[in-house]
Amino acid sequence: MAEIGEGPGTVPEHERILQEIQSTDTACVGPTLRSVYDDQPNAHKKFMEKLDACIRNHDKEIEKMCNFHHQGFVDAITELLKVRTDAEKLKVQVTDTNRRFQDAGKEVIVQTEDIIRCRIQQRNITTVVEKLQLCLPVLEMYSKLKEQMSTKRYYSALKTMEQLENVYFPRVSQYRFCQLMIENLPKLREDIKEISMSDLKDFLESIRKHSDKIGETAMKQAQQQKIFTVTLQKQNNVKFGKTMYINDRIPEERNEIVLKHAFEEEDENEEEVLTVQDLVDFSPVYQCLHIYSVLGDEETFENYYRKQRKKQARLVLQPQSNMHETVDGYRRYFTQIVGFFVVEDHILHVTQGLVTRAYTDELWNMALSKIIAVLRAHSSYCTDPDLVLELKNLIVIFADTLQGYGFPVNRLFDLLFEIRDQYNETLLKKWAGVFRDIFEEDNYSPIPVVSEEEYKAIISKFPFQDPDLEKQPFPKKLPMSQSVPHIYIQVKEFIYASLKFSESLHRSSTEIDDMLRKSTNLLLTRTLSSCLLNLIKKPHIGLTELVQIIINTTHLEQACKYLEDFITNITNISQETVHTTRLYGLSTFKDARHAAEGEIYTKLNQKIDEFVQLADYDWTMSEPDGRASGYLMDLINFLRSIFQVFTHLPGKVAQTACMSACQHLSTSLMQMLLDSELKQISMGAVQQFNLDVIQCELFASSEPVPGFQGDTLQLAFIDLRQLLDLFMVWDWSTYLADYGQPASKYLRVNPNTALTLLEKMKDTSKKNNIFAQFRKNDRDKQKLIETVVKQLKSLVNGMSQHT
């Protein structure tokens, strides 16, 4: 019924689904079955019916198949039962064989296990060997590190550490010993830093102690190089006919000897030249620098090194308190400084960054300021020119040495100009003593010459020329005294001494010429002039000595042009050069001569005063002695002898001295008459006094010094002559009548003077018996005196009112 009711298209569809289910994998049946439910209603029931029908068909086919093969199956079972008996026999045999085989394999198993165990050990040994081969280089490197540490090869040790860390440790980092090594490396690095820093401290202490030796060697080499250069230059100048301005006193033969000696010394010292590396082991610095560079802490090392060296620089620059006393004190000071900067220069050139040029320049500028201040202070205590000169030479060598290492030294040469002024001051003080000794040893008398050789010996030392004197026979006398050639020689020696300081100052000949002339001017205008003035003022220097001093200064003044030629020959700078300084010797010796002339006038007047003080007038005598006073005659004789000596003086000087002496004598005699302590004078005393004045006039008219015109010298006594004539002639009427007239006979008589003397005579007439008797006999004359006194007083009062 179901089949009748099926649609024509439904059956093929169900067959297709069944075929698909039979031919499809079980996992893919789901979509096929789902299509059964998705079709028409009741399709499921119809499908199930179709499925049951298909199953029945298959069962039928299976039953047919079994029926077909049943006999074969029965036969197979029968045969199998037959084989069963044989199988049991075979099983027994197999079991027995297996038992016997197991019994036989037990020994093999034991040996196999041994073999396995050996193979495992062999594998383990191989593994151990491989690991040991991997670890052995690490251990060897670490052992090498320990050995480098023990032998103080710290830089190599640091490199070994780097290799361990970068190459070897990564290979064995899983082992414990490697971790221990890794943990120990920082400690080793710190140990290396401490040890290298300790070595650096020892090095710094060592160079501090040896810096003077280093500096001494460097300065010695610089000096030898300079000597070699100078001697070679001298040799070239000698070879080409040139002259040097340095110390022209050395003859050519001596130049050759000095040159030969210098070259021999250079050859001897050539093999002994030491460098700073020979004196100091710089390996601690290099090693420490490399160590800190490897450790990446180079900046710390640089800061420490520079800080310590700055401290050492301050210690080196601190001088000893008594350094100025000896040249060795200055030498030690300079050698220590040179040693310090030679080491710094070496460090600058052999390392990179530890010491820079900026750092050394800063350090040198600081040191240079300190050095200049120290030298300026200590050199001010030096009073010995030889010590100052040695100091200058040390400074020059010091400057040349450091200049050779590239340090600027211009300020040191500027300092030398300050020290040069001080050197000149010490020279001036020294030469002041030399001049004083020369003046004290001089006899102030013309130099006697007894032979031609002696004469030539003197003029070879002093430029003296006198054709008239040369014609005179021997023995003869030179006009100057012994001090003149000695002074001239000492001035030249001073120029040489001043020139010594100018050597090696890198100055031109013009500057040296200017320095020599200025220092020579100071010697002449200050030192020699002061010594001459002090000599002139000394009380034991008499008129004869003063005359000789004037003569000496005249010859020294004439010799000044030869001193200028002397300086010109040294420096090769012509005097016609615009900026050439002239010597002031002319004014110096003129001033000294004027001072000597003034001292002559003063001493001559003092001598006159000494004679006048010997006067012993009897101012109350009634009659004169008839001859001049003894003191006055002695005075005139003295003046005659003195003026004979003055013939060697310039004419004006002798004339001035003679006129001054006569005027002073006239003034002294006038003051004697008008002395306030003299209360009375007799006419006899006036007459006696007149005799003395007559002798003075005779002396003046005798022309004691040539060159006076007419009665010029006699005019010195004109005041006394007119006054005495007025009283001797008693010509008061003429005096009073002509008073104030230019042509007055008694023009030089002052009313006050006449009044003073007249009152002294008036007082005498009152107390004298002879005048008393005269007064009785001739009252008119007494009245005349009183009248004259009144008129003189009137004139004096008129003069006072007019003034």
Automatic annotation (TrEMBL):
Residues 412-760 form the Exocyst complex subunit EXOC6/Sec15 C-terminal domain. The keyword Transport applies. One of its GO terms (biological process) is vesicle tethering involved in exocytosis. It comes from the Eukaryota. GO terms for cellular component: exocyst; plasma membrane. Residues 50-219 form the Exocyst complex component EXOC6/Sec15 N-terminal domain. Keywords: Exocytosis, Transport. The keyword Glycoprotein does not apply. Belongs to the SEC15 family. Component of the exocyst complex involved in the docking of exocytic vesicles with fusion sites on the plasma membrane. This is Exocyst complex component.
